[in-house]
Amino acid sequence: MGKALEQAAQGLGHTRPNPPVGCVIVKNNNIIAEGYHAFAGAPHAEASALSKLPTEEYVGSTLYVTLEPCSTTGRTPPCTEAILKAKPSRVVIAALDPNPKHAGKAIAILEAAGIEVSTGILEQEATAQLAPFFKWITTHRPFLTLKMAQSLDGAIADHAGQSKWITSHEARKDVRMLRARADAVLVGCNTACEDNPSLLRDNENGLNQPGYRIILDSCGRVPATAKCFTDGFANLTIYATSEHCPEEHRSKIAATGAAVWILPTEFPFSKQARPTLSLHALLAKAGELGLLHILCEGGSELASSLLNAKLVDELIIYIAPKILGATQKHTFGSIPFDLPTAPRFKICSTEQIGSDIKLILKPNDLI
Ligand SMILES: NC(=O)c1ccc[n+]([C@@H]2O[C@H](COP(=O)([O-])OP(=O)(O)OC[C@H]3O[C@@H](n4cnc5c(N)ncnc54)[C@H](OP(=O)(O)O)[C@@H]3O)[C@@H](O)[C@H]2O)c1
Q1: Which of 22, 121, 318, 357 is most buried, judged by most C-beta within 10 A?
Q2: pLDDT digits over 321-347, tens only?
Q3: Is ligand 1 within 6 A of the CB of residue 219?
Q4: Interval between CA 343 and ligand 1 midpoint (Å)
Q5: Is the CB–ligand 1 distance for residue 356 below 6 Å?
Q6: What is the structure's pLDDT at 208?
Q7: CA 128 / ligand 1 centre spacing (Å)
Q8: Domain boundary among 84, 111, 130
């Protein structure tokens, strides 16, 4: 099953709105076939693994799959049919499908055909890998990972506003891996204006399902000359704005090939006089587009808004062993949380990456 999870990982960030699934088939203690779901419309992991050899080779084998096989016709025929044809003697499933259309059905179909079925093998690992799909299929909203890089004393820029680079080359490389696994990268308009980032994944060309960039800019401050609109991949840019953005600016952005989403505004924090774009509306629209996983890369105002709205499913913080002292920019500097009610997290993992520490945390209310 560990190998099946490795297979599944190859599809991360490319399968939307389908789940990344892996499959390994074993016979006489040897792996005879492997497969994974590469993108929506491509064969599912089981069908891919079962296409590698003549059907009779699979008789009596054990098929390991990270998610319960589908039992209905979607873009491709049901995987249970392909499995029944191949006649393995055992099917081992890591996680059951939370999709009510499929849940438990495959097990009944396979068992009725005399195939032994085991479930729950490396279930925790599979559930973690499938978390974005599970969130989307049950709530129609994407899973949101918030990533921030900060100094030891919680600064994301120095007193003069310099933010490049707080963390090491290795940590920044690790962030590119996070980006590769998400369906979209999200930033606030100050980050888009000040850093002018491209937010592309490596090798965006030629990928089956490239990643989107989403920029939040309610009033039209990000120029149409920003990299996200001019780097040749504007079709991958979603410009989320409001009625407060001048019509002329919206037209200029639309002319670059980017999608323009008009969202409602709201007052996210009681003490804030200025309305900002509704993050709930944003995530609802992203869910409609079939985005399973959004990676927010800042800045601090947006990070604070997401936390305040309890929209963070996973928090990843890179901490550099540097002290920046007095600064206007703290990781979550826009909201004064009170100690008794401050957002709390459980540390899921700590790892040294280059000279920095990477923390992966889950909000306490999601545990
Ligand atoms: N170290 C890191 O990990 C990291 C990551 C990213 C950025 N940065 C640094 O952070 C700085 C920028 O951060 P920032 O805090 O000034 O700004 P930001 O979070 O990048 O952008 C905030 C702006 O986004 C717009 N926005 C629209 N809807 C929003 C919503 N619902 N919630 C919050 N904002 C919303 C607002 O402007 P409108 O009202 O005009 O729409 C808001 O002022 C830069 O110096 C950048 O280099 C550091």
Answers
A1: 22
A2: 999 998 888 999 888 888 998 999 999
A3: yes
A4: 20
A5: no
A6: 60
A7: 29
A8: 130
